[in-house]
UniProtKB/TrEMBL annotation:
Chief place of localization: membrane
Protein name: Rh-like protein/ammonium transporter
Pfam families found in the cross-reference section: Ammonium_transp
PANTHER family (alphabetical): AMMONIUM TRANSPORTER, AMMONIUM TRANSPORTER MEP2
One term under GO cellular component: plasma membrane
Length: 336
């Protein structure tokens, strides 16, 4: 059984009124059905981050952070269908950024996708949209109790355009310069986590200290239950984030999903263990959640490339390192 091939004379994959556009994927349906499911659960990361941020914030800020998480998803969706997808994944892209070949979702429908010949392009586009939305959500977290919602949404639109789309093009578009090296980034260590982390830090520095910097109670999460629930949604969504990045329902995808759970688990163990051994503290729900998320981030670029035991090591070391870094900068109050 041969995979469908992209036909440049039919960039949309055929006219559904004249031909059966599904016929080219007969025998491969399970691949794109799996990716659709992964996309659905990746979406849960968006409200998960909102709940996580909301639980860590003061009570009066929690609702705004929840609202902002959904607005980020809405704004990023508009950006993606307007020109984001074309800038990242157009087939005629240069080594650094795409062109306007798919502006306004032009010809994005039933043809084999740039990422995988067994995935219709509309499915691939949806899945990658959710990656972009999650990344923008992380960046906008830099405005955590520092800035207003509307300016942060405008910032998110342009950040996705000027930062995320070019880096995604470098890394995952077959024409991208990193892709052609080749560099190995399974699910977004560079386009998602490195870019968003540094951008969020820069954004926070530009906005300045939190509005309640003088309030001594601000350092404690107002609702650990929300933190826990947000982490659970993020952890569950990450199965789709990493497991779906194989762009097919193969053993590699299953390995990535297994490694995701492994790294999150050992990350949680690592954070709690270091916290207990260094300070003799009682076990903390927030600490456990922080360790799990650190493990998830650490395994993301290698999820489909390493064995299970190495994934366990990556999760443990990542969480332990993040713990050390967060406590090393604590005296400087860089985030307050």
């Amino acid at each position: 059984m041969s995979s469908p091939a992209f036909n440049s004379t039919e960039p949309k994959g055929g006219d559904p009124f004249l031909v059966d556009v599904n016929a080219q994927y007969v025998g491969f349906e399970y691949h794109y059905t799996y990716l659709v499911f992964c996309g659905f659960i990746v979406w849960l990361i968006i409200p998960g981050i909102g709940l996580l941020y909301g639980g860590l914030a003061r009570r009066k800020s929690a609702l705004a952070l929840l609202f902002q998480s959904l607005m980020v998803a809405a704004v990023t969706t508009f950006q993606w269908i307007f020109w984001g997808y074309s800038l990242a994944y157009s087939r005629t892209a240069g080594p650094f950024i795409g062109d306007m070949a798919n502006f306004g979702m032009k010809n994005v429908m039933a043809a084999p996708s740039p990422g995988s010949a067994v995935i219709p392009e509309i499915v691939f586009c949806l899945y990658q949209l959710l990656f972009c939305a999650c990344t923008v959500q992380i960046v906008v977290g830099g405005a955590f109790e520092r800035g207003r919602i509307v300016p942060s949404l405008v910032f998110g639109f342009f950040w996705a355009t000027l930062i995320y789309c070019p880096i995604a093009c470098w890394t995952w578009n077959p024409n991208g310069w990193l892709y052609q090296l080749p560099s190995l980034d399974f699910a977004g260590g560079g386009p998602v986590h490195i870019s968003s982390g540094w951008s969020a830090l820069a954004y926070a520095f530009v906005l300045g200290k939190r509005k309640h910097a003088g309030d001594k109670s601000h350092s404690k999460p107002h609702n650990t239950t929300l933190v826990f629930l947000g982490t659970v949604l993020i952890w569950f969504g990450w199965f789709g984030f990493n497991g779906g990045s194989a762009l097919n329902a193969t053993v590699r995808a299953m390995l990535a999903a297994f490694n995701t759970n492994t790294a999150a688990s050992t990350g949680m163990i690592g954070w709690v263990m270091v916290d207990y051994l260094k300070y003799g503290r009682k076990f903390s729900v927030v600490g456990a959640c922080s360790g799990a998320i650190a493990g998830l981030v650490g395994i993301t670029p290698a999820a489909g490339y390493v064995g299970v035991w190495l994934a366990a090591v990556i999760g443990f070391i990542t969480a332990s390192s993040v713990w050390e870094c967060s406590h090393a900068i604590f005296p400087f109050r860089l985030w307050t």
